[in-house]
């Protein structure tokens, strides 16, 4: 590959904007819906009837729990029972979450109780400039409780390491319950602030005693009051209006382009906001031409929460969300079946089963790049490299859902993709984007994705792919700057050409 200096970083920089605005799954969904709305997608609700809303040539999205989002565009030649081309990813990443009762003090320090979420490399979170983001449930003057998103840009937390002089351990080991509490200030400074504000703990206690009964202690009693104040200010409400919140810790150091030739991305949450962004961009890019009007399929993306903890939640991939959406879409009527502007969901009783048997899911979750300091950890013939294209992940024990029909279909989509402007190689001359293959060593453990659980639940053909990265599950990860464009172009081609390819690659 030619030197990357001077080549286009448009998609990589767009991703940086996306990931920097998305420190939590709630923010990732907000960022995704903004991109979708800019491309003409309209919001619909699960609780509403879709029979008079969803139509051929329409573009729609829906959310669940504000942390999972599904978006789809209905082809102009759609028929009930036709196939649906899908790309699935996830919005969550390993992190720390503030405990329901987080107020702690020790040896003159203010501390915050946190809980680990997912399988993070927790030692990478030490000595970072941390802050908090998430959602607040606030009760307004009218008594209605509404959700508000919060992102505190100022570093207010830090997990300090112990000086080497006090513990010369060869391995950096720590207790996750007792030695991972972030500090957020000094007790003396907080008491001084309260004094300057004219507040006193005695007055607060009297106010709480005279207030109406609440089943749980107020947020200001369960958390440090100043943290609640900062959250309330960012949410545009008062501290006493906060009923509860879900706050995640994140590194305030922004994601950026790195490397001698601007060929790398240094970022938090590459796993899996990298693939979430590429899914959204691939879908919207596929709609910039008039290909949708002649498409007999539905183009769909699903970005799920809670993959890092097994997906078995109402908003996870192992829920009813995608099956329920597909069932409703399988009977969307074709354009000629609308009469006097009235649309009814019609079709054969087995239209849902027909749709599933013909559909295809690309499960998109980040892959492992070969690590130059640990080459022995990789199988000799399967060593993905950054900026060499999206990786197809294969596992004989079905930790990934990939099989040969899926590989054939994705290869055909890759051949038809427009070449990345940043990739100077044979693929650029002949068209298309490159792909790579990955198999884990027999003596190593293997992660998994949403692919196997969705393929089992749906019976739809599935393949597992992802862009290569280093330091997966670290507070800061590393990926290839040009693999963003590779994946976007791959997904765009998949959506545009799936209707044609689905009829040419037959197994049953």
Automatic annotation (TrEMBL):
Cofactor(s) this protein cannot do without: Zn(2+)
Region called Disordered, residue ranges: 193-212
In what ranges is there compositional bias, type Basic and acidic residues?
193-202
Answer whether the UniProt record assigns the keyword Hydrolase to this protein. Answer: yes
User: Could you give one GO CC term from the UniProt record?
Assistant: fungal-type vacuole
Which top class of enzyme applies to this chain?
A: hydrolase
Q: Which reaction does it catalyse?
A: Release of an N-terminal aspartate or glutamate from a peptide, with a preference for aspartate
**SUPFAM superfamilies, alphabetically?**
Aminopeptidase/glucanase lid domain, Zn-dependent exopeptidases
Please give the name of this protein: aspartyl aminopeptidase
